[in-house]
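Dear colleague,

Following up on Tuesday's group meeting, I ran the structure prediction for the two-component complex that the binding team flagged. I've pasted the input sequences exactly as they went in, so you can double-check that nothing got truncated or mislabelled along the way. The structure tokens for the whole assembly follow below. Feel free to forward this to whoever is handling the docking comparison.

Inputs:
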Amino acid sequence: NHELQKNPDCCPSSAPLLPLDCRWYSVSHLSVQERIDKKRKAALVGGGQKRIDAQHKRGKLTARERVELLLDPNSFVEYDMFVEHRCSDFGMEQDRNKFPGDSVVTGQGRINGRLVYVFSQDFTVFGGSLSGAHAQKICKIMDQAVMVGAPVIGLNDSGGARIQEGVESLAGYADIFLRNVTASGVVPQISLIMGPCAGGAVYSPALTDFTFMVKDTSYLFITGPDVVKSVTNEDVTQEELGGAKTHTAVSGVAHRAFENDIDALLNLRDFFNFLPLSNKDASPVIECHDPSDRLVPGLDTIVPMESTKAYDMLDIIHGIVDERDFFEIMPNYAKNIVVGFARMNGRTVGIVGNQPKVASGCLDINSSVKGARFVRFCDAFNIPIITFVDVPGFLPGTAQEYGGIIRHGAKLLFAFAEATVPKITIITRKAYGGAYDVMSSKHLRGDMNYAWPTAEVAVMGAKGAVQIIFRGKENQAEAEAEYVEKFANPFPAAVRGFVDDIIEPSTTRKRICRDLEVLASKKQVNPWKKHANIPL
Amino acid sequence: DFLDCQLTRTYQCRVIKTCRKMGIQTVAVHSDVDSSAVHVKMADEAVCVGPAPTGKSYLNMDAIMDAIRSTGAQAVHPGYGFLSENKEFAQRLAAEGVMFVGPDTHAIQAMGDKIQSKLIAKAAGVNTIPGFDGVVKTAEEAVKIAQDIGYPVMIKASAGGGGKGMRIAWNDEETREGFRFSSQEAASSFGDDRLLIEKFIDNPRHIEIQVLADKHGSALWLNERECSIQRRNQKVVEEAPSTFLDPATRRAMGEQAVQLAKAVQYSSAGTVEFLVDSQKNFYFLEMNTRLQVEHPITECITGLDLVQQMIRIAKGYPLQHKQEDIPINGWAIESRVYAEDPYKSFGLPSIGRLSQYQEPLNLSNVRVDSGIQEGSDISIYYDPMISKLVTYGATRAEALAKMEDALDNYVIRGVTHNIPLLREIITHPRFISGDITTNFLPEVYPSGFHGHQLATDSRRELLASAAALYIAAQLRSQRFLLSTIPQERGKWELCVELGKDRHNVEVTRSGNTYTVEVDAGRVEVSGEWNLASPLLPLTINGTHRMLQCLSREASGEITVQYLGTSFKVRVLSKLAAELDSYMPEKIPEDTSSILRSPMPGTVVAVAVKAGDTVAEGQEICVIEAMKMQNSMTAAKTAKVKSVHCKPGETVGEGDLLVELE
């Protein structure tokens, strides 16, 4: 009681409500309550106001501000606010070096009413470095997320390992990696890089399903510019080495980048709405205002008459999906294939399309890997896959062959073949050679395969084919015309049942919506195996 | 019968429609990029006459003659533009015995030459702009000439082009002064003493008379069209009749137009253009020997189908009507809807694919003549006109109200269009009162067009609508099938950003109605909130308003078209708005050292190379699009760092052309 009088501000608001005869008890109660409050208060300001200001000055929000923006108002339930690090070396045991909650905020909450587990690294506490306690907090929510079947979102902003803790920190990383791997394919995992993420730490985002970055304020690299300089003598800036632009356009490590923290978090909310909560959930269906039988007249004229002329596959996708709302994944990487999420009559679908506008829409190493990873995500989480095909084949050349196009191209083939979710394929124009087989063809268990009247399913383009079939023959032009007449149309595939129907492009949306309704109850099981052996 | 019809997509569709009514089969000609265009589908037959550039297709006479022969067409309707006023084309058709739906060659020829046509007009008793062109010796002589012409007069050196060195004199004293100055200038600058003294047309209006003449010497005038609203000598908004003409002036103009038509033995539909001054004096400008873009408004008020009349006349039938049969019924307005950016010199071409396109045909008394559809490409090769939007009403006010409605209901996505400008024009007090001249646009928008300027009330309406739309979308994103919908909060506190200003709003919802407290006012917004429809019909404080939602981003950015202009707002939760101040400012590109193409087009010329030093304002390159050349100049004096374009190349809007150091 003595202390209370000294410091009346600390008096919890519940104190006056205590019945008088409980007073003997309330003394000890209050002092605990006081400590609780103090700790909570301390946890809320992380590394202190000064560091918060510094964080803001860098154009970054604090861990808590981020969580608040990401989740529905008042929905955040925090775990482990009282956890502190256990390091006792280098003066870390001193009180001033203890921060309740340590350098990460964890818990669960809701995004548009749906459950999600979140961890948000706090850069104001030891630069967000990962201690044993920090890792333990993350593991706890991940374990629970897997148990209840809800996605995990990680907001990364960490300088790396807590060097003072040494191997304990490394163990912490490994604990997280293991959980990332066991949770993979069970619940969606999303990483949003909102600050530095270097060294071993990068492997957690790399193991998750999607990695997003914030432009100008986030970096991902194994070793920073200084080490690079000393080892390879390369001069490179942080931004060039591991900034958002590098990873979304060059390396393909990140799936998308956003302007700033707020933009990223709001977009993440939007993105989250596409995902099922776990692999036991069906693809989510949201209220839809776009008529499922809407005709899209613009599609009847979109494919140019000349088969060498390009068009934008995104025009087709935007026209067909609900409300032109398409969340593209990796829009700046391997642009010759387009992948992303959209909805059809309210139901989430994954869209894969060759992009004739870029490199004629051919398949190469990067586009195959990009497509394969996306298809496998959809398959893991029961999201139907819609494939738009306009592919002239695999990209020839030494660069591709030496790079292992055979091995990498096989990934996309593997992914489409093993997928058991509803698969609908529309051949808009070219479907040549092996690439035809790969792109979710009937032969790989496509459920509905359609051809537009402009479709050409053939082993190769007319010119090349004629040079082989009529080698040395005088009248190549005539032979070419004959080949075009015979094969540069959808009939050869249609008469064999390799496409189920030839449809008017304007009716595509209507057909897909109807098929998805039917295929919602599709059940297909691959033979039992420990796991398949995708050619990595 | 076969009719081979020609020219702009809009026009071919128009002609085909009438032909169908008359039971005439049609052949459309098209370039290869237009092969799936609407007119090609509408026609009974179609012939491709060449690749996209007009010189190789629509202006390729040989190809068109081949098309006529191969289809056995018996007549050609030339439309407007391209070959419609080409006498050689008319002659070649005549030589092959193919009927040309238009006037005879000699009429085209006579009216095709500006000087000759003026002489013919003068001889036919048509008012022409009085003037004198020659050596004037003394100031007194100049005064005498001016008095003969009648004040005000314009004085300038003959050799000076355009309005350069032009002086306007309203009395003798000013004439003397103008003479001194202009004769000096003529001698010193041009080495040519000749002066031009001409009647100055103050507050000029462009009013034209539609005429119809047959091959039997009869002719009619079908009243006037007011076409004063122009930019760069291209008409933007037209109406019929004109608010300015009284019956006597109308009759006088009509009779002179008919006199001219008769003087050149005109047959077919034609237009006589006049300039009209503030005193209702009118002067002949030129005669167009074709059917004009703005003909539908004449059709609306007279009830005649001009294409049908043209075909009848070409066939040799006499006119069906007498002058006293030609009525003025009601009022018609035409807006030319262009694929262009009105914020750049009242309209620079834009291109793209019409990703969504919906004409306001759900409204009554609305006519849309277009040749495009959803999915059409607006390319750099042709006229950027999307359509002619015509509304009709018993009174002018009715027609104008309908136009407002029609513009609000017009859905055009994928290309920039001039609806913001059109809507501002037709709702401008000066336009409504009929106080217009050919200088209307530069007079009303001296510093260029900047879109609708929001007043307190309209700003509130806009902010409230955006906030309500935001909440409707937020609520919808919680409505998952088979899941419990989270409890809705009672009140939404949001921050709506418009330009640089932030407005705090508080919103409560009851069903489909949102009550928004904004800027110390309360706005009630209700609607269906269909988030898939491009049109967003709302009732705002009891008034029906058609808004359009152009885009809605996860970041809270919403673009809505409101009162014709598109406004970008950002709706943020209160928390996000507070935290937004910490977000780093993105450093904008230094635009003075880079030159980007303001529009898609073809590079015609590049005047510099890397290493050159250019002065501020110096021409760097020329971009051409849709028959318009644009000179690109340096924004500062600097050395050229690199050149990213070469002549003949096509460039897109915003493409980097030249970098300066």
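The mean pLDDT of chain B is 87.

Cheers,
M.
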